[in-house]
Amino acid sequence: MLKKQAHKSVKGPASHEKEKDYWILEAIEDGYWEADLKGNLAYCTNTYARILGYKQKELIGINYHKLMDAITAREVYKHFNRVFRTGKPSKTVAFEHIRKDESRLPVELSVSLILDSSGKSTGFRGIMRDITDRQHARELQESFNLMRKMLGQTIHALSVAFELRDPFTAGHHRRVSDLSRSIATQLGLSADVIDGIRISGSIHDIGKISIPSEILNKPGKLTEIEFKLVKTHSDMGYDILKNIDFPWPVAKTVHQHHERINGSGYPLGLTGKDIIIEARILAVADVVEAMASHRPYRRAIGIPAALEEIKRNNGILYDPYVVDACLTLVQTKGYLLKE
Fold this sequence. Notes:
Strand content: 5-15%
Order of helices and strands: HEEHHHEEEHHHHHHHHHH
Strand order of the largest sheet: 2-1-5-4-3
CATH topology of the largest domain: Hypothetical protein af1432
Number of domains: 2
Structural class: alpha+beta
Helix content: 40-55%
Radius of gyration: 33 Å
Number of helices: 14
Low-confidence stretches: 1-9
Number of strands: 5
């Protein structure tokens, strides 16, 4: 057992008699501590005391029960008892300390035994780390993940609602979304950008909800006026989405997905790199899926014809890097559009 005088005044750690070891312990950012077998604090560094809001001398001799609630104390006892019985150090145990001002502090503790020269256990020692920032970061991440999940569910609901209104193109959003995601992955874009492209693809034609279904499902060729009305869906989609605070440029992607790099697209007539990469990817995926699928006014043209279209207009209408990625996916890696 540690001597009683160690509880009355602050002395160096029992397991580190050399002065240089004392200063090393005082220099580390985490708090070092030692306690007897009853859980009374025999030594702690100034950092340990500061983390808990005490002065160093105030903590010497205090029992661990006074630094946590009863439930936590029972769990900590079990943990220390396991270390005592097995002799095996414990890397970490997380719990809440109660600071001097009675606020609660999440900490992480490592525990090992102090042995005397005969190998007999005389106490415990370890490192305490304040994990407040880590816990806050984890809570923020969990909140963010929940928000993303809810956002994804909302986007899916919007897509389903639109496809119920326009059943002939049911699955178009889903297939374009998946092909866009795959192209973005082939291009080596970041996971976050890929996620935004997937979301944008799943609602890229949401603006068509403002177009009369009689026009969308017309079996014959559209008149010039009808076609001009259909072309407004990019603007309408942007208006629907622009005030939603997405973590990606979803509204902008939807707005630009009919732009072409030579400026012949709509609604803005943008060229080249003025069109964001998300929209350049979506443009290729949209054309390939549309040509490969049935439409009210024509039968499916097929994948070979769709690939020929993007090859023929590679670098003219469509971004060459995006076209190459799409061709690699389909022709080399065997990508198939989802049913």
